[in-house]
Design the sequence.
């Protein structure tokens, strides 16, 4: 699979192996019809993890508060659907995206003047504040009981959300495809390369005259927009919003997924959520009390022995096989 | 001769400590000028004020006649002030070519264009490759910086600054950390730099300074002690006392 680092000598064309996730996703649709709701959840988390990879893996912005934008998107879509009577899924998604973008721009403009631990704490603070607001504004959000009564009309007036989750799955897959295409384009663009420059040495980026702060605010806003869309999707597929979408545990969980899969390589954001959510689904049924131990052990092993995540392991295995051949 | 870079009465103090005291300095267009002085003389402070990292307590800085004292670091770069760093400031996990291409891309303003692939900007790549060729780094273009020997990393440090096509180039100890056997490589490169760039070099390697510079300014305790040609500086007793003598003992 190899890394996707961008740059001025990188071939931006889509490699054959990059079709694999889409083939797997379609195969899953036909072969595992009883798992489509889990499948849709995985697709949404892939989009969410991609948005995180863009800022953490490429721009080097460390965050534990990405759930703020995901959660806001989820609530905005939910409130529109349950309270404002706007049932059109495209309108809900657009509103979730706009909300994510606005919050990303407003908070990014403040926190991206800081770095490292300060930045980490501020991201944490933002999502905690939002969580508390959602908790207190129960007339709008349902508070701790969650927001139910989410109504989602047929997509484009044609495709009704069915109880088997077929429509939801394909809908999420389509949105993910668009999100992936955009993020991939960004990473291979001069903009994306300049972000890796900031990640590698922001001092030198200043010294070559780059407006580092504005670049970071821009990528942060793009990432928050995509996270907002992912949040909108989770509301539409669950037809319910709970406070957990805003918790920093969920932001941490997302980071764990990304690290498991591999940071800064696009497809780590695909592998991580699949492994994490499937393991959660399988293990949580068998060992409801201990399954976190399994995830924890996996994370420790990856961090200690495979800094490139699962994809990093795959890469080095392929390299070894090639050398032998 | 026109003046590329000039400071007038530049001062900087941190509380009671004065690290730059009324520095009047002129860098002529196309000059090869060296700034030397013992450790703690204020060379780094001076460079940081020139590049906009530190703001002076008083005094003015003029770049090709325009007052840039109030401008931020990035704006000074856009006006044609490039620099290299004493300690390598490279994009360590990126390729040698990308290190240079990033600078070229900023100068040409291609980075804000969002979605076109970076590799489709052949003007950036070609210029980056040309630069690497002139510095003898063409074969290393695809290598990550991490895999490059230190001496070559120092050359990339210069290549990045050249990618900005500066009018004035500040070289902060370009040979620092390079074994003396290899420092002639650095000198060869410096000798080949375009003559229309005015260069100010800060360097401890006296051999390199006296072979490269046409003028030398000696800074001691934040003040200009003397300025002159290498011959004049070499003969100056005060310079020997505060600097060259000390250097010989070291």
Sequence:
């Amino acid at each position: 699979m190899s890394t996707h680092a961008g740059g001025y000598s990188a071939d931006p064309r889509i490699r054959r192996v990059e079709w694999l996730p889409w083939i797997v996703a379609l195969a899953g649709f036909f072969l595992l019809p009883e798992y489509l709701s889990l499948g849709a959840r995985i697709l949404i988390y892939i989009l969410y993890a991609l948005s995180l990879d863009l800022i953490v893996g490429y721009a080097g912005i460390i965050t534990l508060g990405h759930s703020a934008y995901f959660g806001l998107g989820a609530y905005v879509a939910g409130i529109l659907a349950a309270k404002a009577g706007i049932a059109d899924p495209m309108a809900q998604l657009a509103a979730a995206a706009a909300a994510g973008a606005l919050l990303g721009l407003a908070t990014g403009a403040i926190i991206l003047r800081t770095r490292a631990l300060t930045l980490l704490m501020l991201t944490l603070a933002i999502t905690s504040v939002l969580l508390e607001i959602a908790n207190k504004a129960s007339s709008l959000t349902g508070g701790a009981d969650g927001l139910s009564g989410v109504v989602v009309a047929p997509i484009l007036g044609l495709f009704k959300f069915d109880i088997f989750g077929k429509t939801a799955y394909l809908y999420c897959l389509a949105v993910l495809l668009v999100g992936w295409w955009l993020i991939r384009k960004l990473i291979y663009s001069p903009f994306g390369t300049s972000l890796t420059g900031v990640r590698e040495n922001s001092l030198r980026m200043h010294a070559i005259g780059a407006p580092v702060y504005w670049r970071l605010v821009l990528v942060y806003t793009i990432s928050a927009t995509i996270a907002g869309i992912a949040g909108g999707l989770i509301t539409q597929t669950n037809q319910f919003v709970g406070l957990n979408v805003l918790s920093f545990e969920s932001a941490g969980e997302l980071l764990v997924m990304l690290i498991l899969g591999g940071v800064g390589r696009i497809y780590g954001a695909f592998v991580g959520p699949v492994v994490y959510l499937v393991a959660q689904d399988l293990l949580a049924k068998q060992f409801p009390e201990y399954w976190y131990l399994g995830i924890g052990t996996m994370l420790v092993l990856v961090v200690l022995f495979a800094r490139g995540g699962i994809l990093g392991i795959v890469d080095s295995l392929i390299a070894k096989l090639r050398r032998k051949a | 001769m026109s003046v590329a870079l000039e400071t007038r009465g530049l001062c900087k103090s941190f509380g009671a400590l004065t690290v730059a005291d009324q520095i009047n300095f002129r860098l002529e267009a196309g000059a090869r000028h060296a700034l030397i002085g013992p450790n703690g003389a204020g060379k780094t402070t001076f460079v940081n004020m020139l590049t906009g990292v530190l703001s002076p307590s008083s005094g003015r800085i003029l770049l090709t006649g325009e007052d840039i004292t109030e401008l931020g670091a990035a704006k000074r770069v856009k006006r044609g002030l490039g620099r290299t760093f004493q300690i390598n400031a490279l994009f360590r996990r990126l390729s040698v070519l990308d290190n240079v291409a990033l600078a070229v891309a900023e100068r040409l303003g291609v980075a804000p264009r969002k979605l076109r692939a970076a590799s489709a900007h052949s003007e950036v790549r070609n210029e980056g490759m040309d630069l690497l060729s002139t510095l003898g780094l063409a074969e290393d273009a695809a290598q990550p910086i991490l895999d490059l020997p230190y001496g070559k990393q120092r050359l990339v440090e210069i290549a990045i600054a050249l990618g900005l096509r500066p009018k004035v180039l500040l070289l902060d100890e370009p040979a620092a950390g390079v074994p003396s056997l290899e420092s002639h490589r650095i000198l060869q490169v410096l000798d080949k730099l375009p003559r229309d760039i005015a260069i100010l070099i800060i360097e401890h390697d006296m051999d390199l300074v006296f072979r490269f510079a046409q003028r030398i300014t000696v800074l001691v305790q934040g003040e200009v002690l003397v300025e002159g040609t290498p011959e004049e500086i070499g003969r100056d007793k005060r310079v020997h006392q505060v600097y060259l003598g000390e250097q010989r003992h070291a």
